[in-house]
Write a structure and sequence with these properties.
The structure is a single chain. By secondary structure, this protein is mainly alpha-helical. It has two domains: 107 residues, no CATH class; 54 residues. Helices cover 67% and strands 4% of the residues. It has seven helices and two strands. Strands 1-2 form a two-stranded antiparallel ribbon. Strand 1 and strand 2 form a beta hairpin. The radius of gyration is 19 Å and the shape is globular. The N and C termini lie far apart (55 Å).
Length: 176
């Protein structure tokens, strides 16, 4: 069955590693990881890159960096998967690839203009920060608990760990 460009994906066939999950649902879940990964890079290049250039970066990064790493790590034929690498919820595929891309972008694009001109940056809009934090926190639940590919104890522990860790980290960062 050829799945290129979603051909034959609507047949209702399950994903090979989770027989209760339709392939289309699994593909959409993977697309969430694929789109959030270059989104993590934007903080490192903000104010230093044009939007059209960033869209081109997303396209090229997704094809030439993200897709191969995701295949190597998550597909049963991937060499990292065969070596026993366990990447639950995208630690390797998402965070390492985005972190390396962000570092490369920051190094290539140099310092922001506001830093070079010693201008003060106005404070963030607090309601927007809280809305963004809430959306991110809610999204973590989907990514982390959803990575269990079932409604089981693994999903529950991923959900609980996400909540406890993020709450504890936020508290520690705020206090210290």
């Amino acid at each position: 069955m050829s799945l290129l460009f979603f051909k034959d994906i609507s047949s209702g066939a399950p994903w090979m590693l989770a027989p209760t999950i339709p392939l289309m649902l699994f593909a959409l879940f993977q697309l969430m990881f694929a789109i959030i990964t270059p989104g993590l890079v934007v903080g490192a290049v903000a104010e230093r890159i044009r939007f059209t250039s960033y869209v081109l970066f997303i396209l090229l990064f997704s094809i030439f960096v993200y897709a191969p790493i995701a295949h190597w790590t998550w597909h049963p034929d991937g060499f990292l998967f065969k070596m026993g690498v366990l990447d639950f919820a995208g630690g390797t595929v998402v965070h390492i690839s985005a972190g390396c891309a962000a570092l490369a972008g920051a190094m290539v694009l140099k310092r922001r203009k506001v830093h070079l001109e010693n201008r003060e940056i106005p404070p963030a809009n607090i309601p927007y920060v809280l809305i963004g934090t809430g959306l991110l926190w809610f999204g973590w639940f989907g990514f982390n608990a959803g990575s269990a590919f079932a409604a089981n104890s693994v999903a529950v522990f991923a959900f609980a760990t996400t909540n406890c860790f993020s709450g504890c980290r936020w508290t520690c960062m705020d206090v210290f």
